[in-house]
């Protein structure tokens, strides 16, 4: 299957999903999956548009998505991993830091990633072995070598409290970094590492759809992605550390695991 065609399908699907999000901005209803874990009509509308577009081209492909999307039947070795709205809380509050994220695996390996931010009309994309791009222009991480010069971002679990290990980690890194943020969109955070806008990002509570596309984009841009604990990584593991690949990576890993 031609990779360029797959990428075109993914990019169009992402734009269609994002259009649904923007169309629903002033009309959505909100429900809660858990404490502060929001889901909206917009999530479902976006996912429906994405799935319909991909299925039109590849009806036998498997799928995994945030809003109850699982399609395992068939013999296809392709699996799409879809987040129709990454940054739901931001979206609900009108904070313009959210996106559509679409990754694709072949035989279990990530081969394609697309993340589209409709607020900035920024489309991040990557094909395995072909680098990463932003609106068609190649991107790469910064070369900032130390945390005291770095902008870092962390994800904290939904409904976290002061006793959570993630809070301890955040507070450990806070004095070591030039600046440390919590932004609310894992996919965009990974893309921002890829484009040199931030130097590092970590989380211990992600789902596959939160990171599939962004991980490939980061790797193809030249960033380094591991788990927080060691050099291993899989999108089935909620632990991720992504950086520009300088000494920041090992320094962060040391702080986060001690």
CATH superfamily of the largest domain: Fructose-1,6-Bisphosphatase, subunit A, domain 1
Please state the second-level CATH architecture of the largest domain: 2-Layer Sandwich
**Oligomeric form:** single chain
Mean pLDDT: 92
Total beta strands: 15
By CATH reckoning, the class of the largest domain would read: Alpha Beta
When the domains are counted, the total is 2
Low-confidence stretches: none
Q: How large a portion of the residues is in β-strands, by DSSP E? A: 25-35%
Main-sheet strand order equals 4-3-5-6-7-8-9-10
Terminal Cα separation, in Å? 45 Å
CATH topology of the largest domain: Fructose-1,6-Bisphosphatase, Chain A, domain 1
Separate helix tally? 7
**Helix and strand element order:** HEEHEEEHEEEEEEHEHEHEEH
Q: Sketch the major β-sheet.
A: 8 strands, mixed
Radius of gyration: 17 Å
Helix residue percentage: 25-40%
Folded structure, characterized:
The chain is of the alpha+beta class. It has 2 domains: 3-138, Fructose-1,6-Bisphosphatase, subunit A, domain 1 (Fructose-1,6-Bisphosphatase, Chain A, domain 1, 2-Layer Sandwich); 147-256, 3-Layer(aba) Sandwich (D-Maltodextrin-Binding Protein, domain 2), CATH 3.40.190. It has 7 helices and 15 strands. The protein has helices at 3-23, 41-57, 88-92, 165-173, 186-194, 208-221, 247-256; strands at residues 30-34, 37-40, 62-65, 69-71, 78-86, 99-106, 109-117, 122-127, 132-134, 137-138, 151-154, 179-181, 200-203, 224-226, 240-243. The strands form 3 sheets. It has an 8-stranded mixed sheet, sandwiched between helices. Strands 12-11-13-15-14 form a 5-stranded mixed sheet, sandwiched between helices. A two-stranded antiparallel ribbon has the order 1-2. The radius of gyration is 17 Å and the shape is globular. The mean pLDDT is 92.
């Amino acid at each position: 299957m031609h990779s360029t065609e797959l990428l075109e399908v993914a990019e169009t699907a992402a734009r269609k999903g994002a259009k649904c999000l923007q169309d629903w901005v002033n009309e959505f209803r909100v429900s809660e999956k858990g404490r502060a874990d929001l889901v909206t009509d917009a999530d479902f509308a976006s996912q429906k548009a994405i799935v319909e577009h991909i299925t039109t081209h590849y009806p036998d492909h498997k799928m995994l998505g945030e809003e109850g999307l699982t399609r395992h039947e068939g013999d296809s070795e392709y699996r799409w991993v879809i987040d129709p709205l990454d940054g739901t809380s931001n979206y609900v509050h009108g904070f313009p830091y959210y996106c559509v994220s679409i990754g694709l695996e072949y035989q279990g390996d990530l081969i394609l990633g697309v993340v589209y931010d409709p607020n900035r009309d920024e489309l991040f994309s990557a094909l395995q072995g072909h680098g990463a791009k932003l609106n068609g222009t190649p991107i790469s991480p910064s070369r900032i070598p130390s945390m005291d010069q770095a902008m870092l971002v962390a994800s904290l679990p939904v409904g976290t409290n002061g006793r959570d290990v993630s809070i301890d980690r955040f507070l450990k890194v806070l004095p070591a970094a030039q600046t440390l943020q919590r932004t609310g969109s894992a996919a965009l955070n990974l893309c921002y590492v890829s484009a040199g806008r931030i130097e590092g990002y970590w989380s211990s509570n992600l789902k596959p759809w939160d990171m599939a596309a962004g991980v490939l984009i980061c790797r193809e841009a030249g960033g380094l992605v591991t788990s927080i604990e060691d050099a291993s990584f899989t999108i089935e593991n909620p632990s991720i550390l992504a950086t520009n690949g300088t000494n920041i990576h090992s320094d962060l890993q040391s702080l986060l695991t001690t």
